[in-house]
């Protein structure tokens, strides 16, 4: 149903729509506001992959329409681990886009990047992200107090990880911090 691919010029409008969502825009440091800035954002995905070992993909459905973004950053080659991040276009939330993208990007991390462990995390007040992580096979590992700061507010986060030996199935349903 869902797959990941590289971002391309045809995704500009959907990318700009997603970044108009306040929830996404205030969390990101690189927010495109114009079609040219969106094209630059897309072009940087290739540069980040080559120069920084940061691999970003668009999540699409059968119509090849951009539904969200997923990214794996290699954190340590010595210890073979990386960091997963994801977001879903606001109009597509609740359809399993984030969990599918997270699962596909993690499989890429294990198979293509030869990682052993992939970590992710989210604000406690974002229960949808917790559900997505669990459905992608990420086991909860704990709460990190006041880890993130947006503006003047600090947020606790839930830490999750998936090992190459972990099956996707078997993670208890539920919301972190509940």
From TrEMBL:
> What GO molecular function terms would the record report?
protein N-terminal-serine acetyltransferase activity; protein-N-terminal-alanine acetyltransferase activity
Q: Which UniProt keywords apply?
A: Transferase
Q: Which GO terms describe its cellular component?
A: cytoplasm
Domain N-acetyltransferase, chain residue ranges per copy: 2-169
InterPro entries attached to this UniProt entry: Acyl_CoA_acyltransferase, GNAT_dom, Ribosomal_N-acetyltransferase
- Read off the PROSITE patterns from this record: GNAT
PANTHER family, alphabetically? ACETYLTRANSFERASE (PTHR43441:SF10), RIBOSOMAL-PROTEIN-SERINE ACETYLTRANSFERASE (PTHR43441)
Q: What's the name of the protein?
A: RimJ/RimL family protein N-acetyltransferase
Tell me the organism.
Nocardiopsis metallicus
